[in-house]
Amino acid sequence: MKYKHLNVRPKALEALKHYNLPKGPLGFGKYSTPIMIVCDYADGKWGELKLAPFAFLNLLPTAKVFHYAQEVFEGMKAYRVDGKGPYLFRPDKNFERFNLSCKRMAIPEIPREYFMEAIQAITAYSAEFIPQKTGESLYLRPFTIATEESLGIKPSEKYKFVVVACPSDAYFTKGTVPVMIERQAARAGMGGTGNAKTGGNYAASLISAIEAKERGYLMTLWLDSLEKRYVEELSGMNFFCIINGELWTPALTETILVGITRDSIIHLAKDMGLKVHEERIDITELITSIKNNECTEAFACGTAAIISPIECLGENHGTRYTFRDQGGNISLKLRQRLLDIQEGRYQAPEGWLVKVDLPQL
Ligand code: COI
């Protein structure tokens, strides 16, 4: 790609020369490559994209993001397995969702050209540090934060768009995931920010995450806030289950994040001959169908999680409803097909895989 807006700082190239990937497990989002993209917005326009060394952001304590949480982010991955790639997976979808989130959070949208150039550049310059085992990747985290120094409750007039790149493993690397049904708190309400990728949604989920952990679960399953009856999502991942051999996922509402992995799975499942239902899922009926062995498996999906089979759903008082195929029979087939596409082993649907050109260093 020909970069039109990128200014590569010599110190970033210097930092790249001295960087080594840490030895041992990578974890998720724990390490970053030694560079980042930074782009400032002021006077109604975005400035140049700077490729700079990974470093502290210089913000005053009165920057609006610290007080009013005016921020959005995305999660996307670059793959370089078996010497192929680097590839980006459906970056257009991340771009679209990023700007939808910006709109909801009264943040100026970023032009497509800037977003794509930033993602391509950080991937290209970090290419050497993309881990190469299947399931591993370079996790990219673009975000925009409100930086104006002022405590008035109104949209900021200054912003920073930043992209960092984290050589990472999948979010869950061991076993299957026990999930707690949240019967009290709600993650998102109608008219709120539930379908925007903004930090507040995740912060709102943390109190439940603490309880889930105390009770031996790894994640929370959220129900609709009004009736506490319909399954929504899993704090950063979408929910799927298999009932009588068919794939079910909650129909999208304004309180559910529009998952790109969710959309891809629906597409691949249909391709693999599975019948797919995007409908309301009543939690009581779901539990009955787990007990009857009609609902045999379930999984969490997302960019970070890929597809992670769920061991059981459970109540906070301890009752657990365990899936017959905890290991995820169909889930693992879908996971394999998705990874085969993302890692360049299986023909991707048109436009899903975007090759990244390496820079001439
Ligand atoms: C992602 O999958 O990219 C997310 O942002 C979710 C989070 C659990 C890491």
Mean of residue pLDDT values: 96
The total count of helices amounts to: 8
The CATH class name of the largest domain reads Alpha Beta
Shape: globular
**pLDDT < 50 runs, ≥5 residues:** none
Report the helical percentage.
25-40%
Determine the CATH topology of the largest domain.
D-amino Acid Aminotransferase, Chain A, domain 1
Give the second-level CATH assignment, the architecture of the largest domain. Answer: 2-Layer Sandwich
How many structural domains does the protein architecture include? 2
Number of strands: 18
Distance between the termini: 14 Å
Largest sheet: 10 strands, mixed
CA-based gyration radius? 21 Å
In CATH, the homologous superfamily of the largest domain goes by the name Aminotransferase class 4, branched-chain amino acid transferase, N-terminal domain
Strand content: 25-35%
Summing up helix and strand content along with how strands pair, one would put the structural category as alpha+beta
Bound compounds, please? 2-OXO-4-methylpentanoic acid
Elements, N to C (H/E): EHEEEHEEEHHEEEHEEEHEHEEEHE
